[in-house]
Design a protein that fits this description.
The chain has a domain of 219 residues: SGNH hydrolase (Rossmann fold, 3-Layer(aba) Sandwich), CATH 3.40.50.1110. 50% of the residues lie in helices and 8% in strands. The strands form 2 sheets. A 5-stranded parallel sheet has the order 2-1-3-6-7, sandwiched between helices. A hairpin with a 5-residue loop joins strand 4 and strand 5. 39% of the residues are buried.
């Protein structure tokens, strides 16, 4: 075969192969980034699901619970009993300030007013300088359109290039295999109640039966956070400024704002403390919340150490996700001093 013919043939098959891989990943959409909906995503699409729950709601909530998956167990009905206001838990996977701002703007557009009260759990990891906006933010138009200034061309480009990524291709194939083997669950392992609170159906059942492998879940978190803090050399200026703008805007519109640093299980916290950046970034995140309290009158609390709210280390599903008994203790402490310009407990 002539070298030119060989080169053209190689180019043809390469383009065809890449096109096939891109089309496969776009159609299957295992990470809920493209909203094609051919197969259920293999990860939780909390933004889309919670938007659907709110859209279906007969009345608007008075208050919002914002944050990452680490706030998903905060019970709206418990806050209602404490405040008399109706709440919705809008915590989302890998939630960052872009998410908080998108939810607040969406709420304001949807009901032409601001929430009366916002409870916002801040993860220090959500302020990481090198972690991009989660692809599920850019994939959900109802939220992405609310924060165009924070969804950059780079974020959208990375979501497009991931169509040809090995990780996504492997996930697509696994999704297809699961479908072919009819392994879809009759009942999901996890789901959201109508008020947005997460229910860990399988894990909570295993905890009650005494069969839950907490050690394995903790090891996963240790690997995840060891990698996360390895290059966490500074807080993201964009994320910090966005968080400041959120609290400033809410305070200007009369919204009561309650902020807290999200907790770690003691075992995970102890494993991370020797890392060079961990203690420093935690300290900076705490100072940021103190600034927001001093400047805008937000109520704040540092719950990163469970001793601050008399938490129970057995009431976690892993190193970062507390169960209801702990979130109730946190809310009791947080709501005890409305308008306090300082940490409820040091």
């Amino acid at each position: 075969m002539h070298p030119r013919q060989f080169s053209l043939l190689t180019l043809f098959w390469s383009v065809l192969g890449l096109s096939a891989i891109g089309m496969l990943n776009w159609l299957v959409d295992p990470f809920a980034q493209y909203q094609t909906g051919l197969l259920p995503p293999i990860i939780q699409d909390s933004r889309k699901e919670k938007l659907a729950l709110l859209e279906a709601s007969a009345e608007s909530p008075d208050g919002l619970i914002l944050g990452s998956s680490r706030v998903m167990k905060i019970e709206p009905h418990y806050l209602t009993a404490k405040t008399g206001l109706r709440f919705f838990n809008a915590g989302v996977n890998h939630g960052r300030p872009a998410d908080y701002l998108a939810w607040i703007r969406w709420y304001q557009q949807r009901w032409q007013r601001y929430p009366k009260l916002v409870v916002l759990g801040v993860d220090t990891a959500a302020l990481h300088r090198l972690v991009p906006v989660d692809g599920r933010v850019t994939a959900e138009p109802a939220l992405a359109n609310e924060v165009p200034e924070l969804v950059t061309w780079k974020d959208r480009w990375e979501r497009a290039t991931e169509l040809w990524g090995f990780k996504q291709t492997r996930a697509s194939l696994q999704s297809i295999v699961n479908r072919w083997r009819r392994k879809e669950r009759v009942s999901p392992a996890e789901y959201f109640a109508s008020d947005g609170r997460i229910v860990y159906r399988e894990r909570e059942a295993e905890i009650q039966q005494g069969t839950y492998d907490f050690a394995a879940a903790l090891r996963y978190n240790e690997g995840e956070f060891q990698q996360l803090y390895r290059d966490f050399d500074d807080l993201s200026l964009i994320e910090v400024v966005t968080l400041i703008k959120i609290v400033e805007n809410l305070s200007q519109h009369g919204t009561q704002v309650y902020l807290f640093n999200t907790p770690f299980h003691p075992d995970l916290q102890h494993s991370l403390e020797p890392l060079p950046y961990f203690v420093q970034r935690q300290r900076e995140a705490k100072r940021l919340l103190e600034l927001l309290a001093d400047r805008y009158g937000a109520s704040i609390a540092d719950f990163s150490d469970i001793e601050s709210f008399e938490g129970d280390e057995s009431d976690f599903v892993d190193g970062i996700h507390p169960l209801e008994s702990n979130t109730r203790r946190m809310m009791d402490q947080l709501l005890a001093n409305p308008g306090a310009k300082g940490y409820a407990l040091q």
